[in-house]
């Protein structure tokens, strides 16, 4: 760990920022969060395995998990503390290549493995240390885009709010898979696959607070798909599509949407769009199933890979990978419009999570 400081700026609030070491990133940056202004103050940098591009945090027992998005994919765990991060167990292989996302489901750590087109499930011990061997579920299929969809490319995996199901978003097969997590051996058992628009390349989804509405953002087409979620039956049904751009992108600029986020009160949603480098804002005033595009704001940098709300829901933070910064925005409580409020330098920024 480099440059650790023991100060408790921000009243114990922390932001953890992952980066691409292959693009000049330093590892995982720990920053203090000013609770009054939302400003970030870098405190330390933790050197990790290659490309800790996605992070997730277990508040109990205070463990941060990171992928190593590399050919031989792996996960790492770190204890959080006033002085930054300390290693919490060894680097653990996920049995696949290019993990791009990870999440927690009970006593399992799940990864979506983009290059291999699979999802891995790893056990956690009582202290939250990941181990092996991983249980790997390989996706099958392809899509019409010859360059991006020649094979499965799992991009996100997460449990639903009920905790009964696991959803995985596959850019290569234009689908979202629903699986059950076997409590005995930790394996993912396929249950259902929801097909979305061919060639759209679904990348990321988010649940509305009602637990019954899901928003899927697509990378290969500037679309947001609205879905109805049935937790009893484990069924996902697409009901509508909404554009994420208010006007046509310039002829020489292709939009690549990356992530969608929903406000804790369920009134607004936002989507980051790379290429055009914007944040699209949606009103949900007409109901969760009817998002309405209300505006577009510059992301404050270039290539917004991640977009996340702070725990209060009053601010939005964007990891701009190519410009190497994290920019934060105050959100208008009446309209949801993001207003740029500050930024810090984080080379090859890829992911932001908040915790103690």
User: How would you characterize the largest beta sheet?
Assistant: 5 strands, antiparallel
Strand content: over 45%
Tally of separate helices: 0
The total count of strands amounts to 29
Class of secondary structure makeup: mainly beta
Q: Looking at the structure, what is the overall shape?
A: globular
Helix and strand string, N-terminal first?
Answer: EEEEEEEEEEEEEEEEEEEEEEEEEEEEE
Detail the poorly predicted runs: 1-11
SSE blueprint and pairings:
Elements: E1 14-19, E2 28-33, E3 40-46, E4 55-58, E5 63-68, E6 74-81, E7 84-87, E8 92-93, E9 99-105, E10 108-113, E11 118-123, E12 135-138, E13 154-159, E14 166-170, E15 175-181, E16 188-195, E17 202-207, E18 213-218, E19 223-230, E20 235-243, E21 256-262, E22 268-274, E23 278-283, E24 292-298, E25 304-309, E26 315-320, E27 325-331, E28 338-345, E29 349-355
Antiparallel strand pairs: 1-2, 1-29, 2-3, 4-5, 5-6, 6-7, 6-8, 9-10, 10-11, 11-12, 13-14, 14-15, 15-16, 17-18, 18-19, 19-20, 21-22, 22-23, 23-24, 25-26, 26-27, 27-28
């Amino acid at each position: 760990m480099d440059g650790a400081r023991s100060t408790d700026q921000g009243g114990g609030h922390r932001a953890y920022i992952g980066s691409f070491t292959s693009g000049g990133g330093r590892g995982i940056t720990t920053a203090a969060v000013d609770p009054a202004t939302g400003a970030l103050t870098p405190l330390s940098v933790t050197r990790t395995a290659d490309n800790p591009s996605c992070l997730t945090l277990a508040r109990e027992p205070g463990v941060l998990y990171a992928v190593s998005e590399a050919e031989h994919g792996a996960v790492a765990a770190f204890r959080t503390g006033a002085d930054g991060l300390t290693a919490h167990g060894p680097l653990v292989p996920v049995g696949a290549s290019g993990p791009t996302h990870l999440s927690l489901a009970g006593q399992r750590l799940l990864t979506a493995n983009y290059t291999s087109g699979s999802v891995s499930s790893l056990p956690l011990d009582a202290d939250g240390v990941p181990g092996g061997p991983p249980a790997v579920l390989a996706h099958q299929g392809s899509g019409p885009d010859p360059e991006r969809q020649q094979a499965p490319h799992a991009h996100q995996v997460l449990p639903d709010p009920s905790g009964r199901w696991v959803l995985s978003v596959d850019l290569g097969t234009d689908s979202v898979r629903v699986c059950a997590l076997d409590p005995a051996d930790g394996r993912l058992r396929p249950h259902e696959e929801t097909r979305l628009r061919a060639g759209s390349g679904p990348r990321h989804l988010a649940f509305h607070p009602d637990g019954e509405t899901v928003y899927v953002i697509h990378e290969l087409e500037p679309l947001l798909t609205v879905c109805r979620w049935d937790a009893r039956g484990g069924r996902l049904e697409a009901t509508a599509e909404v554009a994420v751009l208010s006007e046509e992108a310039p002829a020489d600029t292709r939009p690549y949407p990356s992530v969608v986020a929903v406000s804790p009160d369920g009134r607004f949603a936002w989507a980051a769009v790379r290429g055009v480098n914007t944040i699209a804002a949606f009103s949900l005033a007409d109901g969760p199933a009817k998002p309405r595009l209300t505006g577009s704001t510059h992301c404050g940098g270039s290539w917004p890979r991640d977009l996340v709300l702070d725990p209060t829901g009053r601010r939005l933070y964007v990891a701009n990978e190519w410009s190497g910064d994290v920019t934060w925005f105050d959100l208008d409580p009446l309209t949801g419009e993001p207003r740029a409020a500050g930024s810090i330098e984080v080379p090859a920024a890829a992911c932001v999570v908040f915790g103690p």
